[in-house]
Design goal:
The chain contains one helix and twelve strands. The chain is mainly beta. It is globular.
Length: 197
């Protein structure tokens, strides 16, 4: 009788253990895209350690790179890259990721114009090609959809030659992976409106 119950327990537990053993759990990485090579399908992001919607903190180095899945069912909309990590009007700085130094730089700013509560469809920003870099007035016009913030700031002259993506925020993305550097699933949170940049 004892042998039978032991045999029955083994029959029940064996398939369960096989399921658990085969289903190797992966990991999730989330952050802001600072580079995207469409040809190589390689996305590079700065990790958001907090992962709190509406209150991100992009301060993790080095950047993480992943090859996107080839299966379109496992890949959301392709990402837009940007180097702006933080726009802090209280501290009067724009924090950017500088690819040349592979680190963060705080650029001092002076606020020239500021409007809050600006939605993406507001005529102030809708259809406009932002950011706008004006070398004559030494200003940069930026928009943050997450903060609903339209702002014109003056910046030190040496930063005016930086490329436009310096002043843009990249898309927020989430990656599920089992192998380092290889995304099993890719979700563009910004483009799916779960998170607004």
């Amino acid at each position: 009788m004892r042998k039978r119950s032991l045999f029955g327990a083994v029959l029940i537990l064996l398939p369960l253990s096989m399921l658990l053993g085969c289903g190797e759990l992966g990991q999730v990485d989330q952050g802001r895209v600072v580079a995207f090579d469409k040809e190589k399908r390689l996305v590079t992001l700065i990790q958001d350690k907090k992962a709190e919607p509406g209150n991100p903190d992009y301060n993790t180095l080095p950047p993480h790179s992943y090859v996107l899945p080839t299966d379109p069912m496992e890949t959301g909309p392709l990402p837009k890259a940007g180097l702006r990590m933080k726009l802090d009007l209280d501290k009067k700085i724009v924090t950017i990721f500088d690819p040349k130094v592979q680190g963060f730089i705080d650029i001092p700013i002076q606020v020239v114009e500021k409007k809050t509560g600006v939605a993406k469809d507001d005529p102030l920003v809708a259809g406009k090609n932002l950011p706008i870099i004006d070398k004559q007035t030494k200003t940069v016009t930026m928009y943050s959809a997450r903060q609903k913030l339209y702002v014109v700031v003056s910046v030190p002259e040496e930063h005016l030659d930086r490329p436009p993506e310096t002043w843009e925020s990249g898309d927020e993305v989430r990656i599920y992976y089992k192998e380092p550097g290889k995304a099993a699933r890719f979700m563009n949170i910004t483009r799916t409106d779960i998170f607004k940049k």
